[in-house]
From TrEMBL:
EC number from the UniProt entry: 4.2.1.19, 2.6.1.9
Keyword ATP-binding in annotation: no
Swiss-Prot/TrEMBL cofactor(s): pyridoxal 5'-phosphate
N6-(pyridoxal phosphate)lysine PTM sites in chain numbering: 211
Subcellular location: Cytoplasm
NCBIfam families xref list: hisC, PRK00951.2-1
Pathway where it operates: Amino-acid biosynthesis; L-histidine biosynthesis; L-histidine from 5-phospho-alpha-D-ribose 1-diphosphate: step 7/9; Amino-acid biosynthesis; L-histidine biosynthesis; L-histidine from 5-phospho-alpha-D-ribose 1-diphosphate: step 6/9
Stored Pfam families: Aminotran_1_2, IGPD
Protein's organism: uncultured Sphingomonas sp
Stretches assigned to coiled coil: none
GO biological processes: L-histidine biosynthetic process
Family per similarity comment: Belongs to the class-II pyridoxal-phosphate-dependent aminotransferase family. Histidinol-phosphate aminotransferase subfamily.
Name of the molecule in the record: Multifunctional fusion protein
Catalytic activity, as annotated: L-histidinol phosphate + 2-oxoglutarate = 3-(imidazol-4-yl)-2-oxopropyl phosphate + L-glutamate; D-erythro-1-(imidazol-4-yl)glycerol 3-phosphate = 3-(imidazol-4-yl)-2-oxopropyl phosphate + H2O
Length: 545
């Protein structure tokens, strides 16, 4: 008998398997699910007249890869909220079993337990809001504790739970499922326990795409555990828990070409979190600040006064007096939002300029994700699929003095053409967006000698696209980049950026000539996008104001 069978509600074990139509099979006529046979009248959602896959294999596989676990140990749920509910419904008998929590913590654990009629046994963090494993074990002594929820880092206090403590608690409570909720794990230094769920038979790890992957509205999360526990969750799941558009959104956002932009966003949020931590920590009226996840937990002296000031600035935060006197949970927002928050605390520094843009561009031929920041020189991470093109784009960003994170999954097996051109379009679009109203920007140029080569790029960010390319190449390709595409790149860029771009290049060596064009483009852009008269006010390349 597996642990799951031993701990599960007997009536769940006795249930017959759910009888549903199952996943569609290509080439079959589907008259088994009472669906409407006509395509939906919602544009861009062709398949939603059909029921979705109850457990989409591709997404399950992708999430398993993301968290480094076998697919059969992972169950995709409608947000990790749903995983909490499924666990409680699968294992807790009303009026008999109990659920353990460590307060103050995420309210859903106790909420779902009460809906199911399970008792809630609460331990507490220490008065310093630290996690004390011995105190937790002492509080969890009663029998029939089916589930113990450990949130790490904890919402709302940010307290991390040392993975060694989770292992120790799981070993000490062999007849309890210990659930490590890692909703904010991506924002924490603590290593994930996901790969240990299964090898440790009573450990369950919860993950979500809501926080780090920006998909709160799609409701996609998962539970990772021994397959016998996963099997039990499947029995309690509703027949079609995951809406088709949510499955599609999750697969799109977890595309490999999206990952560099996710990583860059997480890094930015952490840098902003640390900036807020530093500034709010020194603020009068703020007794203590902790950082965890993508949020801060403050303990303030006069919460009512703060509430008024935040309300006046139309800033919403969560007051958590029960978690700690004067407790306030504040989510880390964009730079501009955080600046508004600091202003509400009376910390009125000049707002840093924020000229950044993110572009995702998917066609049948390429999938591109790109983030650009004109006010930072780092990071530069470029993966076009064509190493020499990476090098050229890196030259543009390095000489342009801006940060560029770019990844493309393209049909390179057919031809580099689509990737090369689509990336140029995406880059131009991003530059245009990041420039905003382009105030104070005019005509700029740069001429660049490189050994025997002379390259010149003139740029006018006028909003009127025009491209002229004077020069020719003797070889068909340089480093896998077809030279015939070089003029196309400048044209695509001019069109999407809305700029007049004049390029002139002559010399002997095609490698120098191509590289000269890109470097000169970077140099011309550097002056074109610079904010006039405020060089010293720009954020440093380290991103610290
Ligand atoms: C936000 C949050 C969740 C819920 O995530 P969803 O996947 O959106 O349901 C779970 N646990 C904690 C601790 C959270 O803060």
């Amino acid at each position: 008998m597996s642990l799951a069978e031993r701990l599960a509600r007997p009536e769940i074990l006795a249930l017959p398997a759910v009888d549903i139509a199952g996943a569609p099979v290509a080439g079959t006529i589907r008259l088994d699910a009472n669906e409407n046979p006509f395509e939906s009248l919602v544009s861009g959602q062709p398949a939603i007249n059909r029921y979705p896959d109850p457990q989409p294999a591709q997404l399950r596989q992708r999430m398993a890869g993301l968290y480094g676990v076998p697919a059969e140990s992972l169950w995709v749920t409608r947000g990790s909220d749903d995983a909490i509910d499924l666990l409680i419904r699968g294992f807790c008998r009303a009026g008999v079993d109990s659920v353990g929590i460590v307060e103050p913590t995420f309210s859903a654990y106790a909420q779902f337990a009460r809906v199911q009629g399970a008792a809630v046994i609460a331990a507490r963090l220490t008065s310093d809001l630290e996690f004390d494993a011995d105190a937790v074990l002492a509080a969890m002594a009663p029998a029939a504790l089916k589930l113990l929820f450990l949130c790490t880092p904890n919402n709302p206090t940010g307290t991390p739970v040392d993975p060694a403590d989770v292992r120790r608690i799981a070993a000490a409570l062999p007849d309890t499922l210990v659930v490590a909720d890692e909703a904010y794990g991506e924002f924490s230094n603590c290593p994930s326990l996901a790969a240990e769920a299964g090898p440790i038979p009573n450990l369950v790890v919860l993950k979500t795409l809501s926080k780090a992957y920006g998909l709160a509205g799609a409701r996609v999360g998962c539970a990772v555990a021994d397959p016998s526990i996963i099997d039990l969750l499947a029995r309690v799941s509703p027949p079609y828990p995951l809406p088709g558009p949510s499955i599609a959104a999750a697969l799109a956002t977890l595309g490999p070409e999206r990952m560099p932009v996710h990583a860059e966003r997480i890094a930015r949020l952490l840098a902003e979190r640390d900036r807020l931590l530093g500034q709010l920590g020194d603020t009068e009226g703020v007794r203590r600040v902790r950082a965890g996840g993508n949020f801060l937990f403050l303990e303030v002296e006069r919460p009512e006064e703060l509430a008024q000031r935040l309300a006046a600035a139309a800033i919403r935060v969560r007051f958590r007096a029960k978690a700690a006197p004067g407790g306030v949970r504040v989510t880390v927002g964009t730079e501009a939002e955080n600046q508004a928050l600091l202003a509400a605390f009376g910390l009125t520094r000049e707002a840093g300029s924020s000229r950044r843009a993110e572009i995702v561009r998917d066609t049948n031929e390429t999938r591109i994700a790109l983030a650009i920041d004109l006010d930072r020189a780092e990071p530069r991470r470029i993966a076009s699929g064509i190493p020499f093109y990476d090098h050229m784009l890196d030259q543009v960003a390095a000489h342009g003095g801006f940060s560029l994170v770019l990844a493309c999954e393209g049909d390179l097996t057919i031809d580099p053409h689509h990737s090369v051109e689509d990336i140029a379009i995406a880059l131009g679009t991003a530059l245009k967006q990041a420039l905003g109203d382009k105030r104070g920007i005019g005509r700029f140029g740069f001429a660049l000698p490189m050994d025997e080569t002379r390259a010149e790029v003139l740029i006018d960010l006028s909003g009127r696209p025009f491209a002229r390319f004077e020069g020719s190449f003797a070889s068909a390709a340089v480093g896998g980049l077809p030279t015939e595409l070089v003029p196309h790149i400048f044209r695509s860029l001019a069109d999407s950026l809305g700029a007049a771009v004049h390029v002139r290049v002559d010399g002997e060596n095609d490698h120098h000539k191509v590289e000269g064009c890109f470097k000169a483009l970077g140099r011309a852009l550097r002056t074109a996008v610079a904010l006039e008269g405020r060089g010293d006010a720009l954020p440093s390349t380290k991103g610290v104001l």
